[in-house]
Write a structure and sequence with these properties.
With about 425 residues, the chain is an alpha/beta fold. The C terminus is likely disordered. The chain has 16 helices and 21 strands. Strands 15-16-17-18-19-21-20 form a seven-stranded mixed β-sheet. It has a four-stranded mixed β-sheet with strand order 2-5-8-7, covered by helices on one side. InterPro entries: AceGlu_kinase-like_sf (IPR036393), Acyl_CoA_acyltransferase (IPR016181), Asp/Glu/Uridylate_kinase (IPR001048), GNAT_dom (IPR000182), NH2A_AcTrfase (IPR010167).
């Protein structure tokens, strides 16, 4: 209680100061910011019960999370407060119980139906070549956990819980199929029933306990944060869209992770490319509807229906509720290990919501899978958008000769190129999006 209380109070103190007075004077808005900022809330939001005696071992005041007071937490969030929840749980008999931090985090994320969970550790997750992994789909995370399960008791327990058949059904040889595949886990989803705790038999740990990380495995770090990766996959199965595992020893790592394109840590995402797929003939009218206004304004080159049909195998679309809301094309030039990005368009009602970024990320991932090393494009009106996403202006000589012969020079297009790197190869700090 002493340790948890001290840490909680320190966090509240760090979150309590208002903006610097010099900035306030500069902008003339001292008023309500003059004193302490009342924007932090904490309390007995966590219900718990004793773990009891398991396999002959009395766990004493170790608690298991039973309930998260979602309504009271939401009230404080709705009033623009930051809610601080410690690992101390309160039992119905008036006891204070020591709950596992990861169990609290996963229970809160599932009960609150959080958009994302951020896990701050003291290192990073590396691939077999010693490079930082910056992005993983839930399917890729599951495969890696299975591959390394012998290194971690927690990962091995996770594998027992999650149905292997759905994960192993991914088409490893067909990238386009595997990119669209969604691992169907029969009868399994991470579940926290508020008021009852984690489902019997579905907990990652023994008995009824939820996802708990600790003991020698956490102290030794011999598994390279594999247990945290399993926790991330666990909550993603339960509906949390993204989990970020970041290195807290790096200055500014949280800002770098959230506000740079590739991030500074590892992001595990559920359905990050949901609805994104290769186009079919049935999508022609939807694609035409999106690109026609841009063709009329001269932003895109005008294509006939025949030309669109011929190029349809190179188009990718984002579908939502049966409607096409975005499209893009990738035309590979394998000999030059390059590809042309063309016809990126988002429906008017969906602009400004990151659909263009998602589609560009998807196209880049497909290009990498095809062995391409760079992407190029021709544009007249959208150069700024592509520059912010890592493209730089180039000469016409940088365009493959086969494509140069077909360029309509009368349009006066500018040429841009981007060198592709695997997602784990580094951080592109000048490309800002919300991760």
């Amino acid at each position: 209680m002493e340790a948890a209380g001290r840490i909680r109070l320190t966090i509240e103190a760090k979150l309590s100061p208002g903006p610097p007075m010099l900035n306030l004077r500069r902008h003339g808005v001292i008023g309500r910011w003059h004193g302490l900022v009342d924007n932090v809330a904490s309390g007995n939001f966590l219900g718990a019960k004793r773990r009891g005696v398991v396999n002959g071992i009395d766990y004493g005041f170790t608690g298991e999370v039973k309930k998260v007071d979602v309504s009271r937490i939401r009230e404080r969030l709705d009033s623009d407060s930051i809610v601080v929840v410690s690992n101390m749980g309160y039992s119905s008999s008036g006891e204070v119980l020591n709950c596992n931090t990861y169990e609290v985090a996963t229970a809160c994320a599932l009960a609150m139906e959080a958009d994302k969970l951020v896990c701050i550790v003291d290192g990073q997750i590396f691939d077999e070549h010693g490079r930082v992994i910056h992005f993983m789909s839930i399917e890729e995370a599951d495969l890696l956990i299975r591959k390394r399960a012998k290194q971690s008791d927690i990962a091995a327990s996770y594998v027992k819980v999650v149905d292997e058949e759905g994960i192993n059904s991914l088409h490893k040889g067909d990238y386009k199929s595997s990119l669209n595949a969604r691992a169907h886990v029969n009868g399994y989803a991470a579940s926290f029933q508020n008021g009852l705790g984690f489902n019997n038999g579905n907990g990652i740990y023994s008995g009824e306990q939820g996802f708990a990380i600790g003991g020698e495995e956490r102290l030794s770090r011999s598994n390279g944060y594999l247990s945290e990766l399993a926790a991330a996959a666990y909550v993603c199965h339960g509906g949390v869209q993204r989990v970020h595992i970041i290195d807290g020893t790096v200055d500014g790592s949280l800002l770098l992770e959230l506000f740079t394109r590739d991030g500074a840590g590892t992001m595990i995402a559920r359905d990050v490319y949901e609805g994104t797929r290769i186009a079919t003939a049935e999508d022609l009218s939807g694609i035409r509807k999106i690109i026609r206004p841009l063709e009329d304004s001269g932003v895109l080159v005008r294509r006939t229906d025949t030309e669109l049909l011929e190029a349809l195998n190179s188009f990718y679309v984002v579908e939502r509720d049966g409607s096409i809301i975005a499209c893009a094309a990738l035309f590979p030039f394998p000999e030059e290990k390059s590809g042309e990005v063309a016809a990126i368009a988002v429906s008017e009602e969906c602009r400004g919501r990151g659909q263009g970024d998602k589609l560009l990320d998807y196209v880049e991932k497909v290009a990498l899978s095809l062995g391409l090393e760079k992407l190029f494009l021709l544009t007249t009106r959208t150069a700024d958008w592509f520059v912010r996403r890592g493209f730089s202006e180039c000469s016409i000589e940088s365009i493959p000769e086969q494509r140069r012969k077909r360029i309509n020079l009368s349009r006066g297009s500018k040429y841009y190129i981007k060198q592709l790197q695997p997602k784990h190869a580094g951080v592109t700090a000048n490309n800002f999006i919300i991760r």
